[in-house]
């Protein structure tokens, strides 16, 4: 799975422009679907949401392609918010069943545990912060649903997080994605985006490790 993820990240900057040339504005539907599935279906945490948003923004800045950054921001914010809402409902209604051993092939226990730890450590704000962390992004709303979090509280942080994540990623690509040094090292930039977004989770993990058994106190 990791190898496949890396391959998809390294090839996405060639694949997406080809799809835009071939299908035009229908690519919006595909982008919506990817963001919705990554955030809404707990079995798809490996989809490259961050890099896809950044790349879409950089393509929107090019006059030779048909993507519009405003449409991207609005459409993909809706996808992110709707995805998290669906994931919350899946966790709320089917969480106990989907965390049973028979589903561990698809829902990795270590990823779920990391999301649960992050959620219980940071409370409601984890819904917002989790948006910027691959893997955890997919499991946080699922965890909130399992924990029976009040939906009104969830939806507020869901909306704020979804809008912030999409805006930051798309606009970063729009304003910086076509700088010469970025274009010439685009594959490395995509990998760097993934690694940087994982830093908060790594920091939390190391902090808990050094605190020892009293970390949950």
Automatic annotation (TrEMBL):
- Specify the superkingdom: Bacteria
* Cellular location(s): Cell membrane
For this protein, the parts annotated as crossing the membrane are: 26-47, 59-82, 154-176, 188-206
State the Pfam families in the record: VTT_dom
Q: Which UniProt keyword terms apply here?
A: Cell membrane, Membrane, Transmembrane, Transmembrane helix
Q: Where does the record place the VTT domain?
A: 47-174
InterPro entries named among the record's database cross-references: DedA-like, VTT_dom
Instruction: From the UniProt annotation, give the residues forming the signal peptide.
Output: none
Q: How does it sit in the membrane?
A: Multi-pass membrane protein
The Swiss-Prot or TrEMBL record describes its family as follows:
Belongs to the DedA family.
Name of the protein in its database record: DedA protein (DSG-1 protein)
